[in-house]
Specification:
It comes from Fragilariopsis cylindrus CCMP1102. GO terms for molecular function: tRNA (adenine(58)-N1)-methyltransferase activity. This protein has 239 residues and is α/β, with parallel strands linked by helices. It has two domains: 59 residues, Vcp-like ATPase, Chain A, domain 2; 152 residues, Vaccinia Virus protein VP39 (Rossmann fold, 3-Layer(aba) Sandwich), CATH 3.40.50.150. Helix content is 27%, strand content 25%. It contains seven helices and eleven strands. The strands form three sheets. Strands 9-8-7-10-11 form a five-stranded parallel beta sheet. A four-stranded antiparallel beta sheet has the order 2-1-6-5, covered by helices on one side. α4 links the parallel β7 and β8. α3 packs across α4. The longest helix is centred in the middle third of the chain and has 13 residues. It is elongated. The two termini are 37 Å apart. The structure holds S-adenosylmethionine (SAM). S-adenosylmethionine (SAM) binds next to α4 and β8. S-adenosylmethionine binds next to α4 and β8.
Length: 239
């Protein structure tokens, strides 16, 4: 771990946090006080003991992945968690060097999953109409070293406040993800900029939203539409 590196601080399976390693700084949590100076020069994955509490407290310093980042980031909105995020990336066939559009950016959780898959030379155009969230996402992408494969647009893609859409050339985008309260309003704009025979996903928590979005998709020429829900079932198996 070097100065400036992003470190995911694993406290336990229900709680993790993050910091950027900086000389002289201290990370405090309920487990104790952890000095960044103790992080620098250590390998990712190591266990660090608190300097107070006679070293009873400890954390693990983990190398960031989109999944760990989603668990530790500051939630500004609801986020798409790893199960749904992985199915979205899979069903959209997202691959290295693709151009992807996403709206809204929200907390940037899904954005990081997409960026991992389009690296090293792809581009994620992500659109957010809340200015504060757009600025925070832009800053986080820069701090996390992914601003070369992302562009954050402060924009209402549904066109209620000014012209909507994605401002991309016609038939130029490889895949589109919508995580919006009114995705059906963005679908005609998505149809304009997506490449022929490419895929769109709309992520909605309720069936009424899905119904309206399906109608908009059919009207805009999309076909073979599927509605899916994913559930993770863990099995605990003893020897
Ligand atoms: C549920 S959050 C997205 C979370 C994101 N997928 C993640 O994983 O972090 C929805 C976001 O869409 C934004 N939004 C809602 N309507 C919008 C619109 N018309 N244009 C752009 N962004 C919009 C909201 O401000 C909010 O930040």
């Amino acid at each position: 771990i070097s100065v400036g590196n992003l470190v995911v601080i694993f406290e336990n399976f229900d709680s993790s946090n993050f910091c950027y390693a900086e000389k002289g700084k201290i990370f405090n949590n309920r487990n104790g006080h952890f000095h960044h100076d103790d992080f620098i020069g250590k390998p990712y994955g190591c266990k660090i003991r608190s300097r107070n509490n006679r070293g009873w407290g400890f954390v693990y310093l983990l190398k960031p992945t989109p999944e760990l980042w989603s668990q530790s980031l500051n939630h500004r909105t609801q986020i798409i968690h790893f199960l749904d995020a992985s199915m979205i990336v899979f069903y959209l066939n997202i691959r290295p060097n693709m151009v992807i559009c996403e709206s809204g950016t929200g907390s940037g959780a899904l954005s990081h999953c997409i960026m991992r898959s389009i690296a090293p030379k792809g581009m994620l155009h992500t659109y957010e109409f809340n200015q504060q969230r757009a600025e925070t996402a832009k800053l986080e992408f820069a701090n996390n070293g992914v601003s070369h494969i992302s562009e954050v647009h402060h924009k209402d893609v549904c066109g209620k406040h000014g012209p909507g859409g994605f401002d991309r050339p016609q038939s130029s985008v490889d895949a589109i993800v919508l995580d919006l309260p009114e995705p059906w309003s963005a679908v005609p704009y998505a149809a304009h900029c997506i490449k022929p025979n490419s895929r769109i996903v709309s992520y909605s928590p309720c069936v009424e939203q899905a119904q309206k979005t399906i109608i908009a998709m059919k009207t805009s020429g999309f076909h073979s539409i599927k509605t899916m829900e994913f559930r993770l079932k863990e099995n605990y198996v003893d020897e």
